Amino acid sequence: MDAYLDEVERDRSSMAALFEGPGRAVPDLVDEYARHLAGEGIRLRVAEHQGRQAGLFKLRSRQRGGAYTLEPHTDASAFRAMPHLSGFEIQRVSRCYSALACVKNVAGGELVCWNITPDEESSQSMSSGPDPRYPQEALARFDRITIPIRTGDIYLFDVGKIHAVGQRHDEESTRLVAQWNMGVLDDTTILRWV
Ligand SMILES: O=C(O)CCC(=O)C(=O)O
């Protein structure tokens, strides 16, 4: 965890520079969202551990080919199990969301969401391994939506639901997103972290 917090502090100014820009850049949109929530009596703040703050954003590029760029999975319990977050207040959030801003995507790479939030028991019966990936045949009976992801899109989804990144149709370039997580700590607090 110390290594993670040290890295966040070391990279804070270069990350801020990366997200600077004219007009409404991603941090401005997050600030707008925080102001909107404040109007509803909810505080959006960066998760903390012993006075040190979690990271704000990460950049993720995906290049992989195949039927899915990222296989069907959920993240809610995976977030909590991440060694760099053990003991963090993040462990106490009730629902987790991923928020993403698409920096670059040429063709394919949609977000696919299935209308199922597996509990531990159904997860074990539908998937295999400690880091579950869900096979197509286990998902066929659930409704799903496919959301096209274009450069410039901002999107947010419940990571407790099974989701995947669809096949990419442009092997020449990478699909790049800026990503952060949010979770409901209590009735008046939403945390964000990476
Ligand atoms: O890149 C996306 O659109 C979704 C990423 C995702 O599912 C994940 O990071 O777990």
Give the total of domains.
1
Rg, Cα atoms, Å: 17 Å
Helix content: 25-40%
Order of helices and strands: HHEEEEEHEEHHEEEEE
Q: What is the terminal separation in angstroms?
A: 12 Å
Low-confidence stretches: none
Small molecules held by this entry: 2-oxoglutaric acid
| Total helical elements | 5
Structural class: alpha+beta
> Average pLDDT across residues?
89
Largest sheet: 6 strands, mixed
Determine the CATH topology.
Jelly Rolls
Q: What characteristic shape results from the CA principal axes?
A: globular
Give the CATH class.
Answer: Mainly Beta
Short description:
25% of the residues lie in helices and 32% in strands. It is an alpha+beta fold. Strands 1, 4, 6, 9, 11 and 12 form a six-stranded mixed β-sheet that branches. Strands 5-10-7-8 form a four-stranded antiparallel β-sheet, with no helix packed on it.
Overview of the structural elements:
This protein has a single domain (2-193), classed as Jelly Rolls (Sandwich). It is built from five helices and twelve strands. The mean pLDDT is 89. β2 (48-49) and β3 (52-53) form a beta hairpin. It is α+β, with helices and mostly antiparallel strands and 194 residues long. The relative contact order is 0.25. Strands 1, 4, 6, 9, 11 and 12 form a six-stranded mixed beta sheet that branches. A four-stranded antiparallel beta sheet has the order 5-10-7-8, with no helix packed on it. It has helices spanning 2-19, 26-39, 76-81, 120-126, 136-139, and strands at 43-46, 48-49, 52-53, 58-62, 68-73, 96-104, 111-114, 144-147, 154-158, 163-166, 175-186, 189-193. The chain binds 2-oxoglutaric acid. The site of 2-oxoglutaric acid has 9 residues, from β6 and β10.
